[in-house]
Amino acid sequence: MKYIIPLLFLSISLSGQNSEVQVTFQKIPLPLILTKSSVTGIIDNRKSADKSSKIIIRSDNEKRPLFLQKNYLTAIRSFFSKNPENADTDYNIILKINDFNIREIPESPAKIKGNLGVDIDFQIFRDSTYVPLCNFKTNFIYSRPSKDDTEHIDWLVKNAMLSATKFYNKWFGIQKYINPKFAKGVRVLVKPDYYFGNDTDTVFYHPDRKLTWNDFQAKPLSTSRYTAQIFSNFEYLAPVKYEHDSLVIELTMKTYMLKDMSWKSIDAPGDYSLKHEQTHFDLTKLIVERFKAQVLKTEFSIEDYDSQFQLLFIDLYREMNIMQKKYDQETLHGLNEAEQSKWEQKIAGELGQKN
Q: CA-CA distance, 113 to 140, in Å (whole number)?
């Protein structure tokens, strides 16, 4: 069973068949300080079969169980508690104990050989999720006089936690300013739209670069009753960098038409028809501006920002398809000049407010 325990006091019980020995930790003389971090909980993740250690008692030279359960978790946690140097805490750390058990065998009549296996995950708890940071795993191998039944336990546990602390602090010092797991928030930086003016097969949207009939290079559909059809689309680039405790999403939009998927009829259409197709392109750009506006209004989660971006994209892509269809329906594909003019003014007006 896994559980998080708020830790209080230091003690480990040593149980035998006919006796019980109490092992009490003395106040540790070394400061166990996690840099900019505090231990706020412990998860016992050991397997059920590994919940107790085995040490040898000299009176009968037999292995006896050393129970390292709630009390040992209390001991570990209290090494980090009530430390005034931990007042400036940026991160609450959860220790997940995968292994922390002592195992001993006789080495000679006068000596006992032992091993303390340690496996600890350092985690933070954020947005209802445990976020793994780093793992400390080692074995402390030792020999002790057979007459010292429990004196070594205090030393072993303290040194194990001291080693784990040094490991975390070294890792933290390297990772703090480069590892996005330490981010405390997400912010979006909207960059200028992508534009490349000399692309041979793609026209990227720019207000000063209007479409020409030379941009429509696909073979016309012989079954279509329309004079032209544009294929316009949009996509986003959103690389993420970690900067000043934040995940920074650098958003760049691409609004474009593909020449080899856009066609015109053999009988060269006039400027009016070209304007109708240009308005389709303008409408795609309008959706891009709405997408950027929605992004800036959204509070992104550190753990799920990518999914949030994708959902916004899907919503606006669906909106684009609906508006493109509605535009053609209301203008009768440009045949209704009054409605065509209304759409042009509407789109130009909204784009003008955003540009």
A: 11
Give the alpha-carbon dihedral of 230, 236, 237, 241, to 10 degrees: 170
Q: What angle (nearest 5°) sits at the alpha carbon of residue 21, between those of residues 17 and 27?
A: 155
pTM of the complete model: 0.73
Taking the C-alpha atoms of residue 101 and residue 139, their distance in angstroms, rounded to an integer, is: 10
Q: Which domains does the chain have, with CATH numbers?
A: 12-182 (3.30.160), 185-354 (no CATH)
What mean pLDDT comes out for the span 22-38? 64
The per-residue pLDDT for 46 is: 83
Cα–Cα distances in Å, from 111 out to 104, 168, 327?
10, 33, 89
Token pair 């997940």 is at which residue? 96
Residue pLDDT, tens place only, 290-333: 999 999 999 999 989 999 999 999 999 999 999 999 999 999 99
Q: How far is CA 85 from CA 96, 125, 306, 308, in A?
A: 23, 22, 37, 38
* CA dist., res. 115 & res. 120, Å (int): 16
CB 8 within 8 A of CB 74: yes
If you average pLDDT over residues 126-139, what whole number do you get? 92
